[in-house]
histidine--tRNA ligase
Amino acid sequence: IDMDDKTQIQEAIKSQGEVVRKLKAEKASKDQIDEEVAKLLQLKAKLGGDDGKIQFVLKTPKGTRDYNPKQMAIREKVFNTIVHCFKRHGAETIDTPVFELKETLTGKYGEDSKLIYDLKDQGGELLSLRYDLTVPFARYLAMNKITNIKRYHIAKVYRRDNPAMTRGRYREFYQCDFDIAGQYDAMIPDAECLKIVYEILSELDLGDFRIKVNDRRILDGMFAVCGVPDDKFRTICSTVDKLDKMPWEEVKKEMVNEKGLSEEAADQIGEYVSMQGGMDLAERLLQDPKMSQSKQACAGLTDVKLLFSYLQLFQITDKVVFDLSLARGLDYYTGVIYEALLTQAGVAPVVAEAQNGAPGSTEESVSVGSVAGGGRYDGLVGMFDPKGRKVPCVGVSIGIERIFSIMEQKAEACAEKIRTTEVQIMVASAQKNLLEERLRLVTELWNAGIKVQCICIFNPKLLSQLQHCEESGIPLVAILGEQELKDGVVKLRVVATREEVDISRGELVEEIKKRTL
Amino acid sequence: IDMDDKTQIQEAIKSQGEVVRKLKAEKASKDQIDEEVAKLLQLKAKLGGDDGKIQFVLKTPKGTRDYNPKQMAIREKVFNTIVHCFKRHGAETIDTPVFELKETLTGKYGEDSKLIYDLKDQGGELLSLRYDLTVPFARYLAMNKITNIKRYHIAKVYRRDNPAMTRGRYREFYQCDFDIAGQYDAMIPDAECLKIVYEILSELDLGDFRIKVNDRRILDGMFAVCGVPDDKFRTICSTVDKLDKMPWEEVKKEMVNEKGLSEEAADQIGEYVSMQGGMDLAERLLQDPKMSQSKQACAGLTDVKLLFSYLQLFQITDKVVFDLSLARGLDYYTGVIYEALLTQAGVAPVVAEAQNGAPGSTEESVSVGSVAGGGRYDGLVGMFDPKGRKVPCVGVSIGIERIFSIMEQKAEACAEKIRTTEVQIMVASAQKNLLEERLRLVTELWNAGIKVQCICIFNPKLLSQLQHCEESGIPLVAILGEQELKDGVVKLRVVATREEVDISRGELVEEIKKRTL
């Protein structure tokens, strides 16, 4: 260890120790103290080794993970299903940078803004990592003056949230977004988004699911007729949003005790948010003496009714529920909102964990079990347009990490062998000193577009070459020996049956193609 | 505009103005001043509008860009070619987070470290955006104790470099990496990496190309026998690296005047770095009275000889040149290094621009025209292993942005129509009030896996629906009218020929599949 480095680290430890002491004296939050203690330990670890080497902390950043080849194989499968669905619906795709100007993200996420990752000011523009794909999409539309597009975007987003990685909640995670921008007849694009969620969740075969639907205008109207003051709509809305993780009694307590709502108003809200149904419920509420007083609520209810008529045409009403307790956190929604949940036993909500994740748990996709969400955001593009021109938009975001977790668990449970390569054939030899001949054959096959593997050492053992095929699922082996070379053939071995047959060199490519269709 | 916001912005402008004045007074570098002026202008722009609205700067961060659907279509094509090649060679794939612990990147990139993006310290770990995919790969191997893998990784990396976007040089850009880790017989994996570059550049059809090969040990040996002091190897090496952008006279001047090398040593280097050849050159240099005095150089030369024998087996020697002037910047290379250049007229090096990009232009893939590079890095994994255990590695990185630029230019030049969706059929109607019937048919087709488009408004004009098909390359139209509904058929129109034929509803799916194979 370099003495200069050592001294520097020791000084850093000293000053970091003071930071921790100060926080403790100030009775700072446990989270804050934990973070600083973690930094301290990291520094101490560097001095650690007896051999005088600087010790690295060998890990990925908190809340992130690597994907190994098996996980990548699952990921590829999931993405294929999703992309195929998006393409079936005629969507184009775009991509945007992983970071945006900081101001692009400002004022779009309400309370969740504190979870945005900022880049260090190293001179130049101030930048933040994207928090979702919706705001960059809106920026893209405004910047390119696009008023009409159906697009999908699959990319990673970043949130400084409390990770719960075993449940598929990360700080770096994929979103698969599908959005329709443009002026269409009411509720048709909204219904198509729900159709997409339905198709994807069905095809991924994750067990039963439910799609909850509500409307921001119904929520706001409900708050108004229940006597919630205007300036408390947002904060009461985020309390309602906790209903999928807390019983009503606790939610009510938070409204009354923490947010200062009258008991009476809270009780009235409680009555509404317990309602679930379909088109019938929307019709009933349109007749409701109180609810019908709110113009906003009526507009929302009429649209929900219309929405359900399209859902019928699309044949997906069996999984969709109009649920007045659904209230998604993000500021930018203006109309219909929805969220999809897996309801199968094995993947049911885990309430305990969700409650532990206290700070930062107000983020959008709060409910454990939730795998997709979205809604209408007619005002967002206008926030980026110099003249405030609006472009109506509706979209849905599939949260892939949780789906990965489930698929991984399923793959493990059924001991299914996942192939991590697509190799069709292994070029092997039983005898020594045939490396050159193997490489010549490998080149022939590569040049013919065959996926080939070869253990590129002088004298590999035939048994270990065959074992490798069995373990990694390679279906064929081409075995070369002096005799085969003399005869101008290769011995083609089928790994599963151990059947062997001589094939002439000129017919090998066709034979491989035929057998690995 | 909110008065509080306005006041805040005005104060920010004031203090930013002082920053700029101070820098000017201190005669800071032009770059530094420019950066701060840019920030000042950004702030002023916010106050700009007469309508009192805060003005957004509607752009992506410096050195980054969005991909529109056409660019995405090209990107998908290029990725498909590359991934297909990687899979043909039996590679698995992994993914790593976009950021790493800052210390993971420390000490890996030599002078280029200043180009790393750091994240802001918001509590918790100190993070940086990945600078390449090689260091995360080495970290992954050490962390998971993997000593043997052939893997590819396609992802974005980040460098705070001087962008030259028209030439395909960005701050956020894709790398497509293929690496072989593990103990193999010498030079076989190295040769396979070159084979991969050869295959990909051939298949992408980008015109003629050349792959330069050299070896770090040959460079170091050459420096030693030419009398370069040990502690100047790296800095002289990075000067040699500029030979593809500067004439020898200027390179020599930099060595002698800036780096303090003796004129005699520089001249000797000059003689060597002008040498190009193949296996024969390696043989000749092994006999060279001076060069052969360096054990290191001899080891490198023997390996280059062996490498060329495998390149012959792989049938790729026609594009590979042993070139003693090749010197890649990154610290971690230990053996063979290589770089691929496009040599076709239209894509030749642009010397003027490269020279302008003075600061930050010392980065790895300096040479304009360079589209791939890599080499052997046997020590990198050991830097992450607590016990320093080494894993020999060799790899190659395909620089995709430049290839995108060329493909885009080509697509524009030949006015080729690039489809941005894969829609097979448009469901249209000639009459009003058939929206429901159209949606019913669309649902039928979606459920049968057909890629369908439908203009989801009540009364679209048939002509505009047909026009949309011609513009976006949709090959078929299903036209619905009262008569067709009564007869249980749809009118199937072939867009290209305008031929129309009635197809019974039950046979439609099969007919579409047949016609859009």
